[in-house]
Design a protein that fits this description.
The protein has one domain (about 5-170). The chain contains 8 helices and no strands. The chain has helices spanning about 5-25, 30-45, 55-75, 80-90, 95-120, 125-130, 135-145, 150-170. It is elongated, with a radius of gyration of 18 Å. The two termini are about 10 Å apart.
Length: about 170
C-alpha cells in the first residue's frame, strides 16, 4: 500500500510548524493534539482503506502516551510532546506505524547522542568539577533540561517521507 502524497506533505507541513513553535517557545499546545484527533476521525471517512478504528490502530499511540507519561514524570519529556506524539501517530496509517517508529527511534538516538556529546564537550570543565565533588545537581546542569522533541519527530518524518516518496516513484 502506498502512502498518499497529499497526506505525507500535510503531515510534514504540520511537523514543520509544530517544530518551529516547539523550538521558539519550548511548548507544544494541546490544540495540536486536539487537531490531530479531529483529523484522524476525518481520515476514517476520507481514507477508509488506510484508517480503521481498531485496537491495532491505537497500539503505538497508546504506548507512546504511556511511555510519554513516565518520561514526563521523570522530567525527561514534556507533556505536550507526549500528547502530540500520541495524536500524530493516529494520523500515520497503521500499516506504516512500525516503519515510522523505527525512523523515530533512530532519530531520537542520533540526536540524543549528539546532544550528550556536545554538552559534555562544551561543559567538560564544569562537568569534571561537579563529578570530583559528586555534585549531582551540577552534573545535571551540564546536560540541561528537556529538549524540543517536535524537531526530532520532524527529522524522523523526513527520513520516513524519503522512503515513501521512493516507493511512490517506483
Amino acid at each position: 500500500m502506498k502512502f498518499p502524497l497529499v497526506l505525507l506533505l500535510f503531515l510534514g507541513a504540520e511537523l514543520a510548524i509544530a517544530s518551529y513553535i516547539d523550538i521558539k517557545y519550548r511548548k507544544i499546545s494541546n490544540y495540536w493534539s486536539l487537531l490531530n484527533i479531529v483529523l484522524f476521525l476525518a481520515c476514517l471517512f476520507v481514507f477508509p482503506t488506510l484508517y480503521s478504528f481498531t485496537f491495532s490502530t491505537f497500539f503505538y499511540p497508546l504506548v507512546f502516551l504511556g511511555v510519554g507519561f513516565i518520561l514526563f514524570t521523570l522530567k525527561i519529556m514534556g507533556g505536550g510532546d507526549s500528547k502530540f506524539l500520541f495524536s500524530f501517530f493516529l494520523l500515520v496509517p497503521e500499516s506504516f506505524h512500525e516503519l515510522f517508529f523505527l525512523k523515530l527511534i533512530y532519530s531520537t538516538i542520533a540526536i540524543g547522542l549528539y546532544l550528550l556529546i556536545y554538552n559534555t564537550a562544551k561543559n567538560f570543565d564544569k562537568l569534571l568539577a561537579a563529578v570530583r565533588v559528586m555534585n549531582v545537581p551540577g552534573i545535571k546542569s551540564v546536560y540541561g533540561t528537556k529538549f524540543a522533541y517536535a524537531p526530532v519527530i520532524a527529522i524522523s518524518w523526513v527520513a520516513f517521507s524519503w522512503d515513501m516518496i521512493r516507493d511512490l516513484v517506483k
